[in-house]
């Protein structure tokens, strides 16, 4: 069974770097997108799960999520929203936009990995 | 029989009797004389003389009783009548009643004097009644004069009456009270000598204007520097030359210093609040900017320590752990500052959801246990079975509990920390109480009093010893209060403290009017629920009431019950369902009281009312800072617009009322205008983009108007409310953010706004716009079809 592929949609280069390296270290394959539009485009490659930052250029995380969830091809891909602390409004809106779960930044990598595993376990295709 | 004869007849009768007796006696005397009996003649002469003397005596009596006595009475009576009230002071008239009674008695007689007395009595009665009426009228005039005089003399306003040359003819006592100058000294002086030189031209102009136009009322303001600062006055002058009594210009000078001062204070308060908000906004933005690099510091130090562990470089692990822990501490500080500044900027929202109390507590306990056991403390958790769910903001509840528990852990060594959960009932509402008790160092009363203030730990040294921001409790308290609860504390120094969070079991979303969440629920809901799976459902009942469009309250002040009824009926009739709640008051004083009590959205005010008239009500309304902003429509048979507008009225209608127009005015004033135009307003500084958008929308069947910046857009919006605004953000003069701000602060916040921008929106930009605009299109990231579709969706939502 191949490694699950995680699509990281994140505009901050250091965050992208950290997340990808730590996930790779924990046995995931990683794809990267730098803004919402790229995220929507790369979702067509059908990753196992998407980590979505919410404040993104071009297309924000909420809108990107909405589009991915609106497309029957990509709708089943679980999405975890990554929101900044105290931005509860972002969090609720992320869930409302169709995200399956959320975590706050800075990420506690062990917590995040447990969320990822939980969601992947629920998804039939992975 | 003799008595009934007139005085003249009596005389005639007596003289005739005397004459007959004379002839008889002369005949008898002549006969005896001719027969030579002279002694008989002597007898006859004697008898004649006696008879004559007797007649004279009778005539005398007759004259006295029939003529002289009544005449005397008449004379006295005339004198009494002449002196009127003062008759008692005439020495001869002390027995007035006798004379009048005798005169009345004389009037019974049938003779000339009787008639005379009768006529005299009639005349005197007439005179008396006229005199009485005159006295009554005089008393009334006096009373009225006293009334007006006391009004003027007791008025706190200084009142002057000036002649044609602005010379003071009268100055009310208030002048003396205020200025210390005797009113007598002022008389004859030029009024213009008294105001400050700077104010003189305006006053002279007002007085000239008034003098040349009878009936005109002019007002102007003046200021005067006194020992206690600057005093402001309002001067109102009216032409009273046509008045029979005043014949001059009446000038009323009112001290409006207090009003000015309260206006000034309100303005200063507003400035301070704006500055405070700007500060909080800055902190919020700044905190965000600080967090981004901090994330990297924490993240990379974590990664490095993982690497070090893998590579077996133990010496580095401890140092990397220090970097990470310092980073986390700094992050916690920044997060607290961010929370607090968000609360203060009114941008902290509450998101209520249902959750299991037990599992929320379990979550917190598992996170905090390592911290609690660090100081060798025992941790007791006491939660009753089956406590069930609550509906609140889970994150904030968790944060509050975490804060209390970490405080307890921090300040307790080798002790016990207890977390107790209980359900309470108060006034029919269920509350959940979370109590965190410790056996730590405790606090003094003085420390307790400052405990919940931001930036104040019990004392500064505490911060150094125990760390922390001192913001945790302030934030916890504010969170609890936002959810309709509170946090309280009891403590004994050396024995420990107990903090209790009490929250309603079902938290109803706060309706703080300044918070963006409450004031723009429609848009945020529209954004939040447009996806099919909304997991943050709103509690239907309470939120629905909060969000329901409030009906506008209109207060009608008119003394005429028919007008009140007519206005009420015609205004409730307008529109399919009543849009106005109508309240009425039938007099000025009542109207003012109702206005204070109701704070209506619009007031219609009759001018001519008995008692406190409309002008006075209007002045009082505009002088009260709480009521000054309520639009007032004057409704009167007097057409005196200028005066009305000068006094601060918003509109003016002349009776008879045109109800359609009144309805339109009220709609305009309360911002609930239904005359929504069928046009889309494009606000864009770039002509090419404007052209493109215009063509796209026109093709989709929209009427389009264009504005090249926010200020021009406002002109369009004022003229007619658009169905939707297509808004660029970066523009000269007034940019898109400013326009959104202006509209959001006004009654026009319901106009849907679709933002089309080339600007890459920062998170704070988005935060600013969120809830205030319907959609954001970043240029080149959308198709024209999408834009047209969005316009249709949002404009129709508005139209429905």
Which descriptors would you attach to this protein?
heterodimer, A: 126 residues, alpha/beta, 5 helices, B: 800 residues, 5-stranded antiparallel beta sheet, 22 strands, 17% strand
How would you describe this structure to a colleague?
The complex is a heterodimer of chains A (126) and B (800). With 126 residues, chain A is α/β, with parallel strands linked by helices. Helix content of chain A is 44%, strand content 21%. In chain A, helix 1 (13-25) links the parallel strand 1 (5-9) and strand 2. Chain B is 53% helix and 17% strand. Chain B has 800 residues and is α/β, with parallel strands linked by helices. Chain B has 27 helices and 22 strands. A 5-stranded antiparallel β-sheet of chain B has the order 2-1-5-4-3, with helices on both faces. A 5-stranded mixed β-sheet of chain B has the order 7-9-10-12-11, with helices on one face. The model of chain B is unreliable at 511-549 and 671-677 (pLDDT under 50). The A-B interface holds A 12, 14-15, 18, 21-22, 25, 37, 55, 57-60, 62, 66, 69, 84-86, 88-89, 91-93, 95-98, 105-107, 109 and B 288, 291-292, 294-296, 298-300, 302-303, 306, 331, 335, 338-339, 342, 349, 351, 393, 395-396, 517, 524, 527-536, 760-763, 766, 770, 778, 781.
The biggest beta sheet of chain B, please? 5 strands, antiparallel
Largest sheet of chain A: 5 strands, parallel
Strand coverage percent of chain A: 15-25%
**CA gyration radius of chain A, whole angstroms:** 13 Å
Spans where pLDDT lies below 50 across 5 or more residues of chain A: none
State the low-pLDDT regions of chain B, or none. Answer: 511-549, 671-677
Structural class of chain A: alpha/beta
Overall pLDDT metric of chain A: 88
Helix content of chain B: 40-55%
| Percentage of residues in DSSP E strands of chain B | 15-25%
């Amino acid at each position: 069974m191949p490694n699950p592929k995680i699509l990281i949609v994140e505009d901050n280069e250091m965050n992208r770097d950290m997340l990808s390296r730590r996930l790779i270290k924990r046995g995931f394959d990683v794809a990267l997108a730098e803004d919402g539009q790229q995220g929507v485009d790369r979702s067509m490659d059908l990753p196992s799960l998407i980590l979505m930052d919410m404040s993104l250029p071009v297309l924000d995380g909420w809108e990107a999520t909405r589009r991915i969830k609106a497309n029957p091809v990509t709708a089943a891909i679980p999405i975890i929203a990554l929101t900044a602390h105290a931005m509860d409004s972002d969090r609720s809106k992320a869930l409302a936009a169709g995200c399956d779960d959320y975590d706050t930044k800075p990420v506690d990598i062990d917590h995040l990995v447990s969320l990822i595993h939980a969601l992947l376990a629920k998804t039939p295709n992975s | 029989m003799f008595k009934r004869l007139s005085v003249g007849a009596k005389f005639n009768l007596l003289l005739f009797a005397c004459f007959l007796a004379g002839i008889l006696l002369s005949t008898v005397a002549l006969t005896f004389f001719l027969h030579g009996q002279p002694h008989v003649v002597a007898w006859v002469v004697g008898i004649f003389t006696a008879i004559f003397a007797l007649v004279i005596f009778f005539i005398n009596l007759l004259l006295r009783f029939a003529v002289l006595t009544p005449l005397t009475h008449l004379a006295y009576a005339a004198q009494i009548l002449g002196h009127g009230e003062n008759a008692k002071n005439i020495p001869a008239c002390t027995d007035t009643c006798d004379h009048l009674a005798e005169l009345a008695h004389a009037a019974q007689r049938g003779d000339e004097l009787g008639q005379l007395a009768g006529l005299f009595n009639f005349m005197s009665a007439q005179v008396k009644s006229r005199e009485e009426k005159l006295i009554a009228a005089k008393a009334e005039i006096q009373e009225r004069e006293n009334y007006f005089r006391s009004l003027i003399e007791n008025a706190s306003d200084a009142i002057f009456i000036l002649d044609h040359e602005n010379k003071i003819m009268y100055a009310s006592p208030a002048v003396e009270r205020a200025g210390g100058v005797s009113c007598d000294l002022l008389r004859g002086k030029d009024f213009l000598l008294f105001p400050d030189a700077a104010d003189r031209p305006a006053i002279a102009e007002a007085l000239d204007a008034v003098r040349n136009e009878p009936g005109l009322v002019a007002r102007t303001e003046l200021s005067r520097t006194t020992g206690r600062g600057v005093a402001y006055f309002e001067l109102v002058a009216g032409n009273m030359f046509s008045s029979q009594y005043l014949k001059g210009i009446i000038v009323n000078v009112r001290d409006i210093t207090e009003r000015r001062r309260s206006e000034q204070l309100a303005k200063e308060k507003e400035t301070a609040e704006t500055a405070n908000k700007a500060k909080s906004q800055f902190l919020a933005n700044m905190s965000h900017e600080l967090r981004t690099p901090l994330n990297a510091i924490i993240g990379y130090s974590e990664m490095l320590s993982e690497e070090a562990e893998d590579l077996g470089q133990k010496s580095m692990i401890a140092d990397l752990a220090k970097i990470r822990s310092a980073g986390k501490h700094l992050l916690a500080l920044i997060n607290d500052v961010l929370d607090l500044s968000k609360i203060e900027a009114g941008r902290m929202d509450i998101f209520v959801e249902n959750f299991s109390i037990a599992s929320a507590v379990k979550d917190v306990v598992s996170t905090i246990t390592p911290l609690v056991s660090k100081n060798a403390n025992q941790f007791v958790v006491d939660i009753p079975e089956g406590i069930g769910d609550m509906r609140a903001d889970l994150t904030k509840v968790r944060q509050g509990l975490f804060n209390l528990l970490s405080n307890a852990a921090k300040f307790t060594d080798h002790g016990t920390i207890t977390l107790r959960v209980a359900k309470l009932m108060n006034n029919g509402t269920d509350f959940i109480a979370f109590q965190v008790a410790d056996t730590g160092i405790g606090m003094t009363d003085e420390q307790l009093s400052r405990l919940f203030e931001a930036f104040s730990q019990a004392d500064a040294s505490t911060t150094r010893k125990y760390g922390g921001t001192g913001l945790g409790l302030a934030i916890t308290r504010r969170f609890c209060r936002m959810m309709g609860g509170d946090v309280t504390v009891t403590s004994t120094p050396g024995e420990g403290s107990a903090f209790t969070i009490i929250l309603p079991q079902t938290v109803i979303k706060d309706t703080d009017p300044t918070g963006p969440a409450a004031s723009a629920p429609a848009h945020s809901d529209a954004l939040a629920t447009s996806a099919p799976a909304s997991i943050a459902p709103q509690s239907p009942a309470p939120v629905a009431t909060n969000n329901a469009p409030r009906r506008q309250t209109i207060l009608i002040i008119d003394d005429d019950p028919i007008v009140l009824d007519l206005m009420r009926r015609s205004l409730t009739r307008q529109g399919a369902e009543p849009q106005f709640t109508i309240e009425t008051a039938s007099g000025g004083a009542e109207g003012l009281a109702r206005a204070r009590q109701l704070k209506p959205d619009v007031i219609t005010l009759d001018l001519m009312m008995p008692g406190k008239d409309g002008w006075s009500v209007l002045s009082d309304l505009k002088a009260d800072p709480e009521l000054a902003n309520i639009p007032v429509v004057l409704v009167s048979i007097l057409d005196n617009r200028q005066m009305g507008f000068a006094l601060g009225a918003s509109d003016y209608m002349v009776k008879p009322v045109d109800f359609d127009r009144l309805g339109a005015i009220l709609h305009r004033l309360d911002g609930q205008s239904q005359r929504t135009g069928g046009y889309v307003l494009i606000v864009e500084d770039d002509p090419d983009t404007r052209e493109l958008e215009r063509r796209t929308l026109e093709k989709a069947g929209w009427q389009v108007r264009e504005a090249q910046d926010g200020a021009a857009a406002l002109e369009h919006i004022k003229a007619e409310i658009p169905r939707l605004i297509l808004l660029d953000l970066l523009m000269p003069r007034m940019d898109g953010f400013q326009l959104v701000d202006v509209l959001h602060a006004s009654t026009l916040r319901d106009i849907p706004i679709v933002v089309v921008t080339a600007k890459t929106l920062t998170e704070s930009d988005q935060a600013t716009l969120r809830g205030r605009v319907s959609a954001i299109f970043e240029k080149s990231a959308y198709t024209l079809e999408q834009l047209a579709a969005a316009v249709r969706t949002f404009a129709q939502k508005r139209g429905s």
